[in-house]
């Protein structure tokens, strides 16, 4: 294990990056801790067949930084971290590998809490938990929060309501047409909230089973061929709920919606897209602000999971989004920039309190 604690790493600003290897089980993992200013770093473990170690490192540095900002704005007493396991989960995932990984997490003594991400599931967290107590996102049988998409969708809905209030004066989607791209775990729940609120929903998914589910459960939803057709459709709100990079140089100029609020991570394809959105008069509710319901749900496990308490906290995504949109107006910057500023402010102001000695 190579530990490069407190490197000055000017390019990334991370507190700690840990390389973990267990040759017998084939484990190769990197744990990135961006900041513990607000508390232990929390973020999931991505198990993915990266082409190179550099790609894995790049991803963990990016993702762990993103978690610090997300957790800061979710009002959690948690810093930001993330881990990647390098390899094909279909080929190499095993009890020994997961437990070896768990021991590395435990060796950090609580500076990092792990959870699920792409390629890891609640059952994997239960295995990891046999070696470490610093793990969330566990199965319900083990006191876990279960499916985090429930509160992710609830939080996205709250963020969307706040954007609607900011733009149209009333915190409701009633009478609006909302385009949902991706009818997976989050997209399905979000569709139900929108319909209950009186919105019309138009949606798309590449997966025929997901489309069939909507056809049978919500026949009132209009379906379009693909995300390109959805972006060009006559919609008031666009909710990207599939993959990252949904807002790019092709989609933004074609977008007819006046609000973007969705669950997908990393919606802005590259820096500068936030300005393009603002220039086109599109109000963008930053992805990491509105999709924080999932991390709120799993973070609640640290206290002993209570769904109502977690839901209350996810409901406050409405207030946070509203605050960010107002700050963006006041400071004359896009909402994505305002969100970053607010997160950095909390990390600096609350993180600074640790310099006050307690004894
Ligand atoms: N689940 C959570 O708690 C959570 C939390 C935060 C962020 N997110 C993000 O939200 C997004 C959705 O998460 P999820 O858990 O619902 O995932 P999911 O895999 O259950 O659903 C994604 C859906 O998008 C569809 N899809 C993929 N490519 C598409 C395309 N080009 N056009 C249309 N549909 C497409 C898939 O077929 C799938 O049905 C992801 O980006 C995820 O990272 C999820």
SSE inventory with pairings:
Layout: E1 2-3, E2 16-22, E3 27-35, E4 41-42, E5 45-48, H1 53-73, E6 79-86, H2 89-92, H3 95-107, E7 112-113, H4 122-128, H5 149-168, E8 177-181, H6 185-196, E9 200-204, H7 208-217, E10 222-223, H8 227-232, E11 237-240, H9 251-254, E12 259-260, H10 273-279, E13 283-284, H11 287-290, H12 293-299, H13 307-315, H14 317-331, H15 335-351
Parallel strand pairs: 4-6, 4-7, 5-6, 8-9, 8-11, 9-10, 11-12, 12-13
Antiparallel strand pairs: 1-2, 2-3, 3-6
Helix pairs in contact: 1-15, 3-4, 5-6, 5-12, 5-13, 5-14, 14-15
The chain binds nicotinamide-adenine-dinucleotide.
Describe this structure in words.
With 359 residues, the chain is α/β, with parallel strands linked by helices. It has helices at 53-73, 89-92, 95-107, 122-128, 149-168, 185-196, 208-217, 227-232, 251-254, 273-279, 287-290, 293-299, 307-315, 317-331, 335-351, and strands at residues 2-3, 16-22, 27-35, 41-42, 45-48, 79-86, 112-113, 177-181, 200-204, 222-223, 237-240, 259-260, 283-284. It has 15 helices and 13 strands. The strands form 2 sheets. Strands 1, 2, 3, 4, 5, 6 and 7 form a 7-stranded mixed β-sheet that branches. A 6-stranded parallel β-sheet has the order 10-9-8-11-12-13, with helices on both faces. The model is unreliable at 1-10 (pLDDT under 50). It binds nicotinamide-adenine-dinucleotide. Residues 148-149, 152, 181-187, 204-207, 210, 227, 241-243, 263-265, 291, 294 line the site of nicotinamide-adenine-dinucleotide. This is Glu/Leu/Phe/Val dehydrogenase. InterPro entries: Aminoacid_DH-like_N_sf, Glu/Leu/Phe/Val/Trp_DH, Glu/Leu/Phe/Val/Trp_DH_C, Glu/Leu/Phe/Val/Trp_DH_dimer, Glu/Leu/Phe/Val_DH_AS, Glu/Phe/Leu/Val/Trp_DH_bac/arc, NAD(P)-bd_dom_sf. Pfam families: ELFV_dehydrog, ELFV_dehydrog_N. GO terms for molecular function: oxidoreductase activity.
